[in-house]
Amino acid sequence: MKVQTGYIYHIKDEFFDKINDGGLMINHENGRARPTYFTIKDKDILWFIPLSSKVSKYQPIIDQKIKKYGNCKSIMIREIANQKSVILLQNAFPTLEKYIDHPHTKNGVPVKVSDNLKNEILYNFNSLLALKKQGNNLFFPNIDKIRKIMLDELKDKVS
Q1: Which residues sit opposite 54 in a β-bridge?
Q2: What pLDDT sits at residue 21?
Q3: Which band of pLDDT confidence, cut at 50, 70 and 90, is reported for residue 31?
Q4: Residue pair 141/23 in contact by the 8 Å Cβ criterion
Q5: Which helix (H) or strand (E) segment is 24 a member of?
Q6: For the chain, how far is it from start to end, CA to CA, in angstroms?
Q7: Which of the residues 6, 13, 47, 112 has the least number of beta carbons within 10 Å of its own beta carbon?
Q8: Can you say how many angstroms the Cα of residue 63 is from the centroid of all Cα atoms in its chain?
Q9: What is the pLDDT of residue 151?
Q10: Whole-angstrom Cα distance, residue 141 to residue 145?
Q11: Residue 13 pLDDT
Q12: How many C-beta atoms surround the C-beta of residue 152 within 10 A?
């Protein structure tokens, strides 16, 4: 499978079984494979950003952050595949291609976000990474620990 930035994927339960991190969102809810993930390909590591349909849950949080800080880059609400979706950058985490279960499709076609939205997500994600480097961690999962586990897996595969 060719994994590309800007497409939406589902992740295998195996990843969540391996990574025991309370900051990760639950992979299945009511028997459905959820959430879906916007994917960023960064060399051998993939960054997965959860998507949610719970706009009414997250809109007040966004409003509160904008009121307090003047903006909100950790949560976005935008249209993806003709429906409003919440893009939870604060819940992003690194993973590997082997943990992808399947691409998210609509009418049999893999779902891709628009280039404008992809660029906006990348900008906000890189802003959050820069803030983390400065000591302001807005990510819920322990992305450093998870990244190390993923990189160790890659090393073991090569060895």
Answers
A1: none
A2: 82
A3: low
A4: yes
A5: none
A6: 23
A7: 13
A8: 21
A9: 93
A10: 9
A11: 85
A12: 10
Q: Which helix (H) or strand (E) holds 65?
A: helix 55-69
The tokens describing 13, both together, are 């339960």
Q: What fold, for 8-158?
A: Thiol Ester Dehydrase; Chain A (3.10.129)
Identify whether the C-beta of residue 73 lies closer than 8 Å to the C-beta of residue 25.
no
Contacts of 49 (CB under 8 A, 6+ apart): 37, 38, 39, 40, 87, 88, 89, 91, 92, 121, 125
- Mean of the pLDDT values across residues 10-36? 76
Return d(Cα 157, Cα 81) in angstroms, integer.
36
| Domain spans in the chain, listed from the N-terminal domain onward | 8-158
Q: How many residues does the chain have?
A: 159
CA gap 1, 14 in Å, rounded: 18
Question: Could you tell me what percent of the chain has a pLDDT over 70?
Answer: 93
